[in-house]
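Why does residue order matter? Because the sequence determines the fold. Keep that principle in mind as you read this record.
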Amino acid sequence: MSEHPRIALHPMGAEPLRQALADVRAPHLPQSQMSDHYATGNRALHDALQAKVSHLVEALDPQLRAPRPHWHGAKADVLALDLAFVEHPQQPFELAWVEIQAFTSMLPTFHTLHQAQRRLHGLDRHWLPHDPVPHGSDWVGHLRRWVAPKPATVLIEDRPRQRPTWPDLDAARHWWQIAVHDWSELLPAHGLLYHPGTARHFGHVWNRLILSDLDRFDQRRAEGTLMAADRVSWHSHPAWYEGIHKGSLADVALAEHEACHWVEASPLCTNGWQAADRWVAKAVGGHSGSGLLLAPTAEQLAALPTPRQWIVQNRFRQTPIGAHPDTGQPLFGEVRCMLGLADDRPPWVMAWILRLSTNGIATLTGRQTVPGEGMTMLYFDRSEA
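Structure:
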């Protein structure tokens, strides 16, 4: 009989992790958002995750290849893919899609935490939380081709230092020696982006700006500035964040337990919005816990804007994958696969990230942080890869 997918959690302790993070000498991370576990998965889990990711990428291929002719340099180069561990009648769990985005998230923090955990848990070097890197390279150097291939690289965001994600951005400065600026500080100049305060010209952009989060005036101004810089190259292009999003799951054939539908084409719409409590509703542009109706009423669903602005997904039941080290409460998990896309090679897993919670909600925004919850790494033995 084939082996079931399995995952194991290994507590490290908050104080040893704090010291290891300090020893890494990277920018400060809010430890309240980091789990003091690390996790290992077996070969069956790795194969199951890879099969899910491969199927989704194949199904999305027409959208990934679709041109964005009105914005120079727009192409798909990254996917953030979230899966939950959910109940299965004959196995410890099965995997269900939660959401997808075309947006880099957590990579700098991922590496900082990985370096700290390496100091503590003593796993063999073949245990990796990502796909193997080419011989003679390291993870930071290999990722540079996606995130910062040019020395003059700028990471852009809206008011970056005021955001809870600032430690992420600060770690990006540390690992890849890039500049971080508010988009509004930059001007187009000779097809590049120019920062008057530092007199630097930038030829590559690592985008963390979500245009739909801006008001209409700023959105038009940001688009005008960035489109005018028509000689820059991009990582995580804003046009692709708008083009590949959680609504894209409604265009993919999925198993019943994770199936998604556009609100206007859903079974709910045809049955008069009956049994609304069997579904969860998600806004296409929602992120970090926004635009989410966990227990929608029929009236709320009927009032949602259309077309192709909201999806509904079958409600699934997450299954515990471990216990909280202090309270014994069940711990639930979601895996985020950060997938790098390039024209000259197959998709490459940049990171397997595990997010743990006691309430089944993986977002870190507004989370009541307690030891044992939060972000950690998911390691696999890649000695045969």
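DSSP finds nine helices and 20 strands in the chain.
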